[in-house]
Design brief:
Helices cover 0% and strands 32% of the residues. The chain contains no helices and 5 strands. Strands 4-3-2-1-5 form a 5-stranded antiparallel β-sheet, with no helix packed on it. It is elongated. The two termini are 41 Å apart. The relative contact order is 0.22. The mean pLDDT is 79.
Length: 127
Amino acid sequence: MAMPYIGSSISLLSSSMIRYEGVLHNIDMQKATVELTNVRSFGTEGREKDDTNTAKQFIPASDHVYPHITFRGADIKDISVTENKAAATPAELPPDPAIIASADVAPPAIGSGGGGGGGEHKLVVGG
């Protein structure tokens, strides 16, 4: 199943009335979880009472960025896409038969572990 919003910026409101913002990493339908990366907590932002007027604890915003948080789907009150990365049109590559792959991030260099010399290296392809 394709997930077009993976990589998009997400705003999530938990059942504790705490708002989080991060990048959508995964939705696990079997476990009913939502995973965000680079997550910030904005606290309750004055939402100390929910729709049933039940008092909630005040939680302040935090400057800390959490690398990864998994949220239980049943405890998500609201979720919305704030910036849809999937909707951005990628730059179109020219029709070049020499191109066999393209990625947003370059793969690690082969043989970049040091080892002296520091001179030029010749790349030999197919021979």
